[in-house]
Amino acid sequence: MKKLFFIIPIIFFLNVEELKVISYNIRYNNPNDGINVWENRKSTITKFLVDENPDFAGLQEVTFSQLSFLTESLKNYGFIGVGRDDGKTKGEYSPIFYNNKKHKVLSSKTFWLSSTPEKVSVGWDASMERICTYGLIEDKRSNKRIWVFNTHLDHIGNDARVRSIELILDTIEKLNEEDNPIILTGDFNLEDHTKPIVELQKIFNDVQDGISKSKKSYGTFNGFEKNLTQKKRIDYIFTKKLKIKKASHKLIKTPKMEWASDHHPVLAILKYQ
Predict the structure, then answer these.
(1) Residue 194 sits in a domain of what CATH number?
(2) Nearest CA to 84 among 56, 123, 45?
(3) 179-211 burial by CB neighbour count: b if 16+ within 10 A, else e?
(4) Percent of the chain at pLDDT above 70?
(5) Which CA distances in Å does 130 have to 136, 166, 231?
(6) 147-151, 178-182, 210-214: lowest mean pLDDT where?
(7) I need a surface site. Which of 40, 130, 137, 151 has the fewest CB within 10 A?
(8) How far is it, in rounded angstroms, from Cα 106 to Cα 118?
(9) DSSP character for 7?
(10) ∠165-228-55 over CA atoms, to 5°?
């Protein structure tokens, strides 16, 4: 019995050290999506999140109706974030869901990707409002702290994408005075050969850096097309001061054998250094 008494605390401690993180553009609630409307996809997406049981999930394109369904379905989770159109509930969120049994939020904020980040605004040559949500989050058991950022960059304005990344990096540098670990999730609308992503990879660890383009799971954007050999990787998880134990793209289909979203989720298992 004494051996069993000592083994259990060790296993518990090891589990504390690991973090499971998801980045997932769930596709906004568009009534014109035909067979791919949210009503046909929502149960598959929430089941995936419940089954994976991540510590943090950075989601993109989440409208208020979708957020309401997610918060009702994800019983052990809280979220941070606001709608981008009014700083409250209108427009898409880039929320961060966190397991509130394991973590607590010490501070959080959403800022706009523009030259006036403190107020609702469209930045540079972007086609619409774009935002970044972040939180300083503490593990309830170990008291370790981590910054989690989540964003969705513009799909049209290249200057906006470049400047948005610069703004996010400046914000991280100003906030992280204690040099805590960092997770940055998001739909960057940039492929991994583009200069902004290459520059990010010099500062952070890309959890799937080096993935072979020959792999069927290389791409993260599927456009609801059934072809698995997508070559467009635009969704990422970047980390700093964390070890990457495992990373993958998940290929998730609804009971009707359609994609659960027009993007594939990125999943990573990380460990504190």
Answers:
(1) 3.60.10.10
(2) 123
(3) ebbbbbbbbbbbebebebbeebeeebbbbbeeb
(4) 93
(5) 21, 14, 25
(6) 210-214
(7) 40
(8) 20
(9) H
(10) 50
The domain tally of the chain equals 1
Q: What does the chain come to in residues?
A: 273
- Name the residue range of residue 8's domain: 2-272
* 3-class secondary structure, 225: coil
Q: Kindly state the greatest CA–CA separation across the chain.
A: 66
For the whole model, what pTM was predicted? 0.93
How far is residue 147 from each of residues 57, 75, 177, measured CA to CA in Å?
Answer: 13, 23, 11
Cα distance between residue 236 and residue 22, in whole Å: 9
3-state SS, one letter per residue, for 47-82: HHHHHHCCCEEEEECECHHHHHHHHHHCCCEEEECC
Q: Which helix (H) or strand (E) holds 199?
A: helix 195-203
